[in-house]
Structures are given as structure tokens and as C-alpha cells.
Amino acid sequence: AERKRQESEAEGKKRPEEEAEKKKQEEETRQREESAAAERKRQEGEAAEKKRQEEEAERKRQEEENRQREEAAAAEKQRQEEERKKAAEEAERKRQEQEEENRKREEAAAAERKKDEEAKQKAAEEAQRIQKEQEAAENKRRDKKAQNKKKETR
Predict the structure, then answer these.
(1) Predicted confidence band at 149 (pLDDT cuts at 50, 70, 90)?
(2) How far is CA 13 from CA 1, 6, 17, 18, 64, in A?
(3) DSSP assignments along 32-61, one per residue
(4) Per residue in 113-145, is it b (16+ CB within 10 Å) or e — as a string?
(5) pLDDT digits 0-9 by tens, 11-20
(6) Which pTM was predicted?
(7) What pLDDT is recorded for position 28?
């Protein structure tokens, strides 16, 4: 009976030690799990941040690509507009040159017609003068003949 009591007492003493050991192990396990969970959470946070940064970088890259594409399109549009303007100015310059050429040609033709008209007028006046002179000479000759006849008749 004494031995049983001693064993039971030893068992009783053993039990709190085992209990304490068990509690210590449970606490260590809990801390390890918490630490592992915290580490997982930290890694997930880092991964999420890395993903967010990559997405931001991609968004910025695309924005820059679009901006450059828009700039290039705007520059091309401006180049075409300037080309169109230049062509329109050239066409207008040629039209004005042609108009000026036509005006000069018309003026020259008008001047030529006027010169021809004046020459015709002068020729007609000259012909008329000569005819008057001839008529006057003819009249003078006739008058003289008539006077000579009168003298003869006397």
C-alpha cells in the first residue's frame, strides 16, 4: 500500500511536470503557427505590392505608347495640312500668274488693234487728202481751161 501511495505521489508530481511540458510545447506550436501565418501574410502583401507596381508600370508604359502614337498622328496631320496649304498657295500663285499673262496678252492685242485702227484711219485721211488735192488740182486745171477759152472767145 505504501509503495502504491508513493507511486501515485510520484505519478502526481510527474503529471504537473508533463502538463507544464505539454503547455510549453502547445505555446511553442501556437507561436510557430502565428509566426508562419505572419510570414505568409507578409509575403502575400509583398506579392500583392509587386503585382500592383507591375500593373502600374504596364499602365504607364501603355499611356506613354498612346501618347507617342497620338503625338506622331498629330505631327503627321500637321505635316499633311502644311502640304495641303503649300499646294493651295502654289495653285493660287499659278492661277494669278496665268491671269496676269492673259491680261497682258489681252492688253497687247488691244494695243495692236488700236495701232491697226489708227494706221487705217491715217491711211484713209491720207487718201482723202490726196483725193482733195487731186480734185482741187483738177478744178484748178478746169478753171484755167475755162479762163483760157473765155480769153480765146474774146
Answers:
(1) confident
(2) 18, 10, 7, 9, 76
(3) HHHHHHHHHHHHHHHHHHHHHHHHHHHHHH
(4) eeeeeeeeeeeeeeeeeeeeeeeeeeeeeeeee
(5) 666 566 777 7
(6) 0.41
(7) 95
